[in-house]
Design a protein that fits this description.
The protein is an alpha/beta fold and 270 residues long. The chain contains twelve helices and eleven strands.
Length: 270
């Protein structure tokens, strides 16, 4: 039977607790009587962030949100990225995601920190990928091959966050039969990320076929009148398909993070 997210308060709380393993361990020690309430409060208060001068690294992001701070690589020097990575490792983080990381910066960072670099997506990962934590699948579909860099950013982010991911590339509306030949994948997905430039019609088409949330990502792919993705953004915002939500232009990371939250909010139907 198809896995479906459950949006009950109980499911949300239980999943958040499962993701916040450090928090859960502390609370269970308090319940077991092996840790005092005062000591637990002290642990929660200690080192909420690391001030390394040019950055204040959030060490409590996992406690609050279930996911550690993610480094936005654009605009940062390799030395700054290394410093942030070192602060996060000292704070107990074994896996860190870096987005919008240039190949040149990645080479310099990797001389000090053992990151894996994915050139097409401009993503670096310290510590490798985890095993999937959910039974639901995030389907990532693109209108064309030119949208793949944004799609790969989304796919790698979703995998880093513990999701099963299926890629469905180059299924745009100019050849609708390509998408329809994968209708089973569309219907079995728990969340779909629809990525397209030009006029951005893919999101509306998928939204009209799918029975799950669809997150639309406009891309800057297209000729002059596409205005670097603005046309696709406006088309997606004006979609008449139900359950289509839109993120910013080229924001594969944001789409994947939201999709992951949705995908982690449920259990397998009995």
């Amino acid at each position: 039977m198809k896995w479906r997210p459950s949006f009950t308060r109980t499911a949300i709380i239980e999943k958040d607790m499962a993701m916040n393993r450090d928090t859960r361990t502390i609370l269970e020690e308090v319940r077991a009587g092996t840790l005092s309430v005062e000591d637990a409060c002290l642990e929660f208060k200690q080192k909420p962030f690391a001030d390394i001068g040019y950055a204040k690294v959030d060490l409590h992001r996992r406690v609050r949100q279930g996911v550690p701070e993610i480094i936005y690589g654009a605009g940062k020097t390799p030395e700054q990225i290394i410093g942030i990575l070192q602060a996060m490792k000292e704070g107990g983080e074994d896996r860190v995601l870096i987005t919008r990381l240039s190949e040149e910066s990645a080479k310099k960072v990797s001389e000090t920190m053992p990151i894996s670099y994915y050139r097409e997506a401009r993503v670096g990962i310290l510590g490798g990928m985890p095993q999937p934590e959910t039974e639901g699948t995030i389907l990532i579909a693109t209108g064309g091959t030119g949208d793949i860099p944004v799609a790969e950013e989304a796919a790698l982010t979703a995998e880093y966050l513990g999701n099963r991911v299926k890629r469905l590339y180059d299924v745009g509306v100019a050849g609708l039969h390509r998408l329809l030949s994968h209708s089973e994948d569309v219907l079995q997905a728990s969340v779909i990320i629809a990525i397209a430039g030009m006029e951005g019609a893919l999101a509306s088409v998928i939204g009209g076929l799918a029975d799950c949330p669809v997150i639309a990502v406009p891309t800057s792919v297209g000729y002059g009148a596409s205005f670097d993705g603005l046309s696709a953004l406006l088309s997606m915002l004006n979609s008449c398909s139900n359950c289509v939500t839109v993120v910013n232009i080229d924001n594969g990371f944001g789409a994947a993070f939201t999709a992951s939250r949705i995908n982690h909010m449920g259990r397998k139907d009995q």
